[in-house]
Every structure is written in C-alpha cells, then in structure tokens.
Design brief:
Low-confidence stretches: none
Strand content: 5-15%
CATH superfamily of one domain: Type I PLP-dependent aspartate aminotransferase-like (Major domain)
Distance between the termini: 80 Å
Shape: globular
CATH class of one domain: Alpha Beta
CATH topology of one domain: Aspartate Aminotransferase, domain 2
Number of strands: 26
Radius of gyration: 28 Å
Structural class: alpha/beta
Mean pLDDT: 94
CATH architecture of one domain: 3-Layer(aba) Sandwich
Length: about 950
C-alpha cells in the first residue's frame, strides 16, 4: 500500500526560509543541547531567561512566507512607487552606478558582509578602497586629511560645528550658517546644537558677515558651495572676514562641482563636508550615502569618525589600518566629542571606485556635461521670457515665476519630471549625470516656453558656460596611478576581485564577534535593494509617489514595535549611535515638557558601550557612572545610592540588556522600577536584542525607550563598517518627542520639539527592504527559533571552551545569553601570550577574531549567532582549544616567548618562500590543526605596527615615488 501523499498545503510554499537562515538543523541542535544539558530549546531558554521578563505571548506578526512569495510582495510594493525623473536637487541627484561596481561591490557579499576593519591584517582590501575614498575627498576639497566617511551631509555638518567649537579660538559665540545652505542640513544643525547650548544663526552672507553676528562672537561659519539655489559665489571675502573674527570656516561642497571649481582648501576653508552620493550611489529615498569630512592638517587628530592610515607590517611592508583609534568614542566615553561609532564603508567604497573607474578626466567630463545641460536649460528659459535668478551656477537653475510655481511644478510632474517648488514664486531645477535632452524639453514645456526658443543645438552654439572664471579650478587632482589604471571593465573587475581576495568576510567563514551579531544576510533580502523602484527615488519626491515605501516603512515600524513591546518606532536614525541620541533627546524633551528641565543626569553602568556616554553628553546630559559587580551585573546597591543622590536630577538610566557581559540579569525589573520611582526613564540599549526576539520585550519589562540595530539583529549587513540603521522605539508617552523632519511632515511628529537627527526623513530608507523581508520570511515562530538557537550556540561554545579558558560571566543556572566572554588574562600573566596574539593566531586557523578586550580588557567576547552550523562552531572551538595547547607549549618553555606561532601570527604565504629561522615549523605556522590546505585564507600582510602608523600619519594614497622602494 503506497504512502498517503502530502497535502497540497504542505507542498505549495516550498522550503521554509527559517531552515535556510538558521545554521544548526534538528540533529545538530540535539547534539548541542546534549552538550549544554537540556532536552529542548524551550527548556534551555526557560532556564536562561528570567521568568519575570519572559513571555507576554506569541508575536503578532504575519506568518512566514516563502522566498518567492516575499519577493513577489516586495515587487508589488516597489511597483507602488512612482519613479519620475528627479530634478529636485537639494543634495540628492540621479547617477549611473557603473554595472561593474554594482555587481562586484554593492551586490557582492565579499564586500557587504565584512565587518569593521579592527583586524587590519585581514581587511587590507577594503582599507585600500577607503584610502582611495579619502584621497578623492582630500584632493577634490584641497584639504590634506579626510576621514573614511560619515553618515550623511547633514550630520557631517553637525560634526563640523562641534569640531569648530572644540578647536577654534572663540569658545562661546554663535555658529553662523549661510541662508543658501541645504534646509535639511540647517535642521540637523539645530537639533544637534540646542542640547549643548549652541545657537545656530542663519543669515544671508551674500554681502558678508552681518555686524550684529560679528559683535556677538562667532566660533564657526558654514557656507554651501554651490548654494542650495544653485548660485556659485566667491566665498573668499566671507572666509577672510570669518578668520579675522577667530571663526573656523566649514564649506559644504559638491564633490562633482569641485572637479571644475576651485577647492574649499584653495579658497581658505578649514573644514569641508558634504556627500559622495552622486559618485555612483543610488538616491535610495535618502540613503545610505557616504558623507565626508576633510580638514586642515592642524585638525587631523580631532577629526570625528574613522581614519584609514598607512603603516607597516612586521616585515616593513606597507600596510593599511584604522589610524588614531584612540580618537573614537568607544574609548573616550563621556569625554568623547562625537558619538560616531560607524561609517558608511560600503557606500564610500562605491564612491571611491566610481572615481577610480572614471579617473579625473572622466569625472570632469561628467561635471562638464551636467553643467552644460544646466546652462542650456537656463538659456532656453531666458529665451522664453523666464527670469533666471542666478547668472553663475553649476547644475541647479532657479527660475522666478511670480505666482506660477505650483502650476509649473505640477505641469512638469505630469510630464514625468519632479522639480522643486520654493514658495509661490521660485522653481528649482537640478541637472545631473542622467539628464538628457528629453528632460530639458519637458521642463521648458512646463514653463510654457515656445519650442521656437529651444533648439538645443542652436542654444549650445550660442550659450557660454555659467561658471565664474575667477573660481575655475586650475590645479591637478587624482594623479595617483590608481585613478588611471582601471579604465577598461576588465581592469576594474580584476582590481575589485584582487581587493576582495585580501579581505575576510562572512562569505569565507564565521565572524564570532560579541556585541556585533554577524549573522546571515540572505541574498533574497538583499536583492530588492537595487531595484530602481526602491533605489532611484528622491527622498523629497512628493509623498504620494512613495506609496510602496510608505507601506513598507509603516509595516516595518509596526513589526519592530510588536517585537520590542513598544508603542511607536522611528526609522530615521541612520546608525545605532544616532538612535541613541534620538532616544535621549526624546527623554530630554519629555522632562522639559513636564516642567523638569533640571533632570539631566544620565546613569550608565561602567561596562556600557562608549557610545552610550558620548550620546548622553551630546544630548546635554551629565554622565554618572554606576559600578558593575564582580559577576558582571549592575551593582544594584551602587545604583540605588546614585538614584538617591541624584533623585531630583535623574533623567534616565542607560542599560544594555542582556548585559554587555552577555548575561540575562535577573534584577532588570527591580532596576527599572527604582529609576521610575525617582521620576527617571529607562533606556535599554538594543545592541543585544538578538537574545530577546520572541522571548522577552523591553517595552513590557520596564524600559521606556530603546534603539535597535537593524544591521545586527535584523539582517542589514555591516558592509565593512557601514551602513547601519538604528531605529528608536518608545512607549506612548515619549512618542511626541521622536525626531521630525521639516521637509516631510509624515516622517515624525508634526511640530514636535525634536528636529531631525539625519538628513533624510527616513534615514537610510534604501536598505529597509532587507529587514522587512527578514520579518516576512521568518515569521513569529522562525524569529523565536532564531533567538533560541543563538542562545544555544553561545552556551555550546561556552561549555566546550570552559575546560580550556575561564568563562568570565554567567547568569541563571550557569548559562550565558547569546554571547560569552572567555578570560585570557591568567594565561597572559603565566606565559606572556597576549590577547592580540590569540586574535592574530586565529587568522592562521581561518577565523576572524572575536571582540577583543570589550567590555573587559584581556578577554574575548564570542557571539556565534544562529546562522552558523555545528560544523563551523566546532571548527572554531577546535581552533581555540588548539591555540590553548600552543599557549601551554610557550608556558612550558618549548617555544620562546618572543618567537612562537602566536607571537609570529598571522603568517603569510610569502614567509614560506623565505629562509625559516623560527623554532616552530612552517606546518605549525600556516596549517595548524586541521586547517584545510585547499581553500586556506592567506593574509596579505603580517602583523601591523599600529604605533608606527600613528606617529607617521599618512591617510591618502602614498606619493608615486614611494612605490620605488
């Protein structure tokens, strides 16, 4: 008798995605559970998660759907977006992403699944790519030091404002902003200035600095170049006068325009900021895009964010690394001057490669073509009797049409072109790399210009350029060979492959970083990001053209609110650090609205991530540190003492849950209640949310606000150090204080007291389809199972490694949460083998190191995530156990302390060809344990000398003559 066939309902949806996302299958999980001592995932998590916070019912989310079904849903959402030709400008432009860069960078997991290059020996490819980006920014801006990217132009300007106040001669005074600055930049500046007592003054600087501003004192000046309305003015008189007044001058400059116009550095600016979006990065409804900052040499060591520098390895070979890392907030904490914890690496790589592919001549040609279209557009309007406001411009034309602006913008929209309306009288039209003759014809028709005046070839013959001769660029730029060697697609393809091969990313193997959750970024989640209906939409397009995005955003916000137990979510923050700031600004505004402006104290455990303290300072709060107990928990006795001491001033407690030590603290509800009793709010840092989804909800166990990391728990890839999304989730009473946006009222509370924290209304909207897809693919059961498997993986590793390395902290039942910390300090004391030695030795075994020395110096924090299968977990554990055996051989004197496989790690292929003088064998060096010979990852450099790089700071492509040696 034949078996009964499976019903159609069990067959029609294909393999469930959760089984693709979660690494260990049922058999693997059974083995892992046996090792840990439990019979099921539910038994394990019931023992690990305190009963007082667990539960609150199943997640009310749509059931899981197949990959094909979710792609179909996303396609339907994408089709509800109307992608018209955008001529809005305002810092966002159409651009052509060269297909070789689209396919081999943006869509390539070798680039998008990599982690921040804190282990530089295995990050040489993306570090070189970032050095290219820094060189592009430095040479186009005419300033010697550029960073490895910031979050967007608006936040870059805000960082410049803070830098100006810090390094300038004038310590009080105002920050003076030209009225022709991008409106979203001005709004972000105001948001960032108000909590720290800075006054932003916006004034028309066409005729110079107003006397009343000069009399008040000015610590910094910001100029837009070209201006928002398109005007290209000579800023030198304003810059000279600002310097006489002791102010630091920032120029927000268009990189494409700088291929033709004199650089900010040549004009006398101290700082340049902006965005690299139009260098081949799609608009994506606002992001992600790589902002930039470049500074004069005196400010190099005060530059916020990351800086790639040139150093040398143990053989003296040139090698790249993140330079001056002590400037980063995660080390400086409450003394930090910025909370920047990430960059926009993937997008900076794309922008840098765009410049590599086109070279200086190609970039200038794109700029000339863009400008030429703008000049002809203006000439046609003038010929038709339309007043063009500015005589000198680069790509943007402003037309004055008294009382007709709305009508003209509507007519252009009917013809498939979005223009920018400024009041009832002005219309802005921005040309870009994608502009064609058809767009010019459509715009002229919308203005009612007769076709007799718009013969493009005739206009071309008769129309001069509109760039002022006194501001034309005369110096060379991008002369380094890298910008001249890759013109053919073959050469570019090979260059990208060569750099990718130097890196270690998730496509090679496990990245077991504690606190950073390097899980699967599934291809099905990534695919829609590059669809033009998502990628090509301008963030300030009429909102009715973004119905698909609005639905996706609303559904993602609702899903995240359900998962976290909060009432409202804002997706605007384009990094976790910005989400922290947004959450703290909401708390601050809430207290002020309740008549408690004195509530400014922010309690933070000593173990917290450095961004917590930095964000608190930026939100105008006073940081008070709470002690951590020997078991890693918050010291409740010290917390209660601090609460009592600051009862009338207490604004908020910031606490990470599970703790930064990787433990489910049992007293979290008690802690929340004590803070609330004193009138404070509770901020739960969402960095470790991967241990809670489906098991517990911060908004239900006592927290008032959290930021989430979509680039951790919700599958947006880390991209080599960015992009990220850091939404802020709040309970109902804080919802009126979420960030708003002046150019898009639907993006936040209308007329709320807190302005935007990002330049675009929904931040990095272009990558939100990734997290939306993850929730739809997994469904409520899949999300819970993923969390349980992550907790199982961490406990499995802890149990396997515990006989060889002490596990520093455990929670209920001797269990950890989704990560564990192993202590190397006793071994270091006994043998001299350092935590660095262990991290570098892991490279020889084919692994990226876990998180080093955080939150405790001399330890490794390990997070396997749910995506790694048992074979990979065992491979990692076997490597760590083998390394412990190597440490014992050093301790026994079998190998010298200064010449052993750990001290010499990582080992390169080149070393095998050289004379071998070490007391350990070549086999031990490069093929330790069971490391496979066939597909071994070979680091391109040996251990890098960080101190040398900091002493001899080089942060752009080395001069050509340096290659002679």
């Amino acid at each position: 008798m034949s078996e009964r066939p499976l019903p159609l309902s069990a067959l029609e949806h294909g393999s469930p995605f959760a089984a693709r996302h979660i690494g260990p299958d049922a058999t693997d999980r059974a083995k892992m559970l046996a090792q840990v001592g439990f019979g099921s995932l539910d038994e394990l998590t019931s023992a690990a998660v305190p009963a007082s916070i667990a539960g609150s019912g199943p997640l009310r989310l749509p059931q899981a759907r197949s990959e094909a079904a979710v792609l179909a849903e996303l396609r339907a959402l994408a089709d509800r977006n109307q992608v018209l030709t955008s001529m809005i400008g305002l810092g966002y432009y159409g651009t052509f992403t060269p297909p070789v860069i689209l396919r081999n960078v943006m869509e390539n997991p070798a680039w998008y699944t990599a982690y921040t290059p804190y282990q530089p020996e295995i990050s040489q490819g993306r570090l070189e790519a970032l050095l290219n980006f820094q060189t592009v920014v430095s040479e186009l801006t005419g300033l010697p030091t550029a960073g490895a990217s910031l979050l967007d132009e608006g936040t870059a300007a805000a960082e410049a404002m803070a830098l100006s106040r810090r390094v300038g001669k004038v310590k009080q005074g105002v920050f003076l902003v030209d009225a022709d600055t991008l409106p979203q930049t001005v709004a972000v500046l105001r948001t960032r200035a108000e909590p720290t007592g800075v006054e932003v003054v916006v004034a028309d600087l066409t005729e110079g600095i107003p006397r009343e501003a000069a009399e008040r004192g000015i610590f910094g000046v910001l100029l837009q170049y070209p201006g928002t309305g398109g005007a290209v003015r000579d800023p030198r008189p304003v810059i000279e006068r600002a310097h006489e007044l002791g102010a630091v001058v920032t120029v927000a400059a268009d990189l494409l325009a700088l291929t033709l116009l004199a650089s900010p550095g040549e004009l006398g600016a101290d700082i340049a900021v902006g965005t690299s979006q139009r260098f081949g990065v799609p608009m994506g409804f606002g992001g992600p895009h790589a902002g930039y900052m470049a500074v004069r040499e005196a400010y190099a060591r005060s530059l916020p964010g990351r800086l790639v520098g040139v150093s040398r390895d143990a053989d003296g070979k040139r090698a790249y690394r993140l330079a001056l890392q002590t400037r980063e907030q995660h080390i400086r904490r409450e003394k930090a001057t910025s909370n920047i914890c990430t960059a926009q690496v993937l997008l900076a790589v794309m922008a840098g490669m765009y410049a590599v592919y086109h070279g200086p001549q190609g970039l200038a040609d794109i700029a000339r073509r863009t400008h030429r279209y703008a000049a002809l557009l203006a000439a046609g309007l003038r010929a038709g009797g339309v007043e063009v406001v500015h005589g000198a411009f680069f790509d943007t034309v402003t037309a004055r049409v008294p009382g007709r602006a709305e009508q003209i913008v509507a007519a252009a929209r009917e013809a498939g072109v979005n223009l920018r309306q400024d009041g009832s009288d002005l219309v802005g039209i921005a040309c870009d790399e994608t502009t064609t003759r058809a767009e010019l014809a459509a715009v002229w028709a919308a203005f009612g210009v007769d076709g007799a005046h718009t013969d493009i070839d005739a206009l071309d013959a008769a129309t001069p350029d509109a760039l002022p001769g006194a501001l034309l660029r005369t110096d060379e730029y991008l002369s380094h060979p890298v910008f001249h060697q890759h013109r053919s697609e073959t050469a570019m393809l090979r260059y990208l492959r060569r750099l990718a091969d130097r890196d270690y990313a998730l496509d090679r193997g496990m990245i077991p970083l504690g606190s950073c959750t390097m899980k699967l970024n599934a291809t099905v989640e990534m695919e829609p990001v590059t669809w033009p209906q998502f990628a090509a939409l301008h963030p300030f397009a009429p909102i009715e053209q973004a119905e698909g995005y609005r639905t996706l955003i609303r559904e993602l916000e609702d899903g995240l609110a359900e998962i976290t137990g909060y009432d409202k979510v804002s997706l605007q923050s384009n990094a976790g650090s910005q989400g922290e700031l947004a959450g703290l600004l909401a708390v601050r505004a809430y207290h002020r609205a309740n008549g408690d402006p004195q509530r400014t104290v922010c309690l933070i455990p000593s173990s917290a991530h450095g961004t917590n303290a930095a964000s608190a300072v930026m939100a105008g709060m006073k940081v008070v540190v709470v002690a951590t107990g020997e078991n890693g928990d918050v010291n409740v006795e010290d917390l209660r003492a601090k609460i009592e001491r600051y009862r009338d001033e207490l604004a908020v407690l910031m606490v990470t849950y599970p703790s930064t030590h990787g433990v489910f603290e049992e007293g979290i509800q008690e802690i929340c209640a004590a803070v609330h009793d004193a009138g404070g709010q509770v901020y739960v840092d969402g960095a470790n949310l991967n241990a809670l989804v489906g098991l517990a909800r911060p908004g239900r166990f006592g927290a008032d606000v959290s930021h989430l990391n979509l680039h951790k728990t919700f599958c947006i890839p880390h991209g080599g150090g960015g992009p990220g999304v850091g939404p802020v989730a709040v309970r109902e009473h804080l919802a009126p204080y979420l960030p708003g946006h002046p150019l898009q009222p639907t993006a936040g509370p209308v007329d709320g007291p807190v302005g935007p924290v990002s330049a675009a209304p929904w931040g990095s909207a272009g990558i939100l389809p990734i997290s939306w897809a993850y929730l739809r693919l997994m469904g409520p059961e899949g999300l819970r199972e993923a969390t349980q498997t992550a907790v199982l993986g961490a406990n499995y590793i802890a149990k396997r490694l515990e006989p060889h390395y002490p596990v520093l902290y455990t929670g209920p039942g001797g269990l950890v949460a989704h990560e564990c910390i192993i202590d190397v300090r006793p071994l270091t004391k006994a043998t001299g083998v350092s935590i660095d030695d262990v991290a570098k030795r892991l490279i020889d075994y084919g692994f990226h190191a876990p998180t080093m020395s955080f939150p405790v110096a001399g330890t490794l924090m390990i997070e396997p995530t749910e995506s790694e299968n048992l074979a990979e977990l065992d491979r990692f554990c076997d490597a760590m156990i083998a390394i412990r055996a190597e440490i014992d051989r050093v301790g026994a004197g079998e190998w010298p302390k200064d010449d052993n496989p750990l001290a010499g790690a990582p080992h390169t292929a080149v070393q095998l060809t050289e004379e071998w003088t070490h007391p350990y064998s070549r086999q031990d060096a490069v093929f330790p344990g069971d490391t496979g010979r066939e597909d071994k990852y070979w680091p391109p450099v040996r251990r890098i000398d960080g101190a040398f790089g900091d002493r001899n700071l080089v942060c752009s492509c080395p001069p050509v003559d340096s290659y002679e040696d």
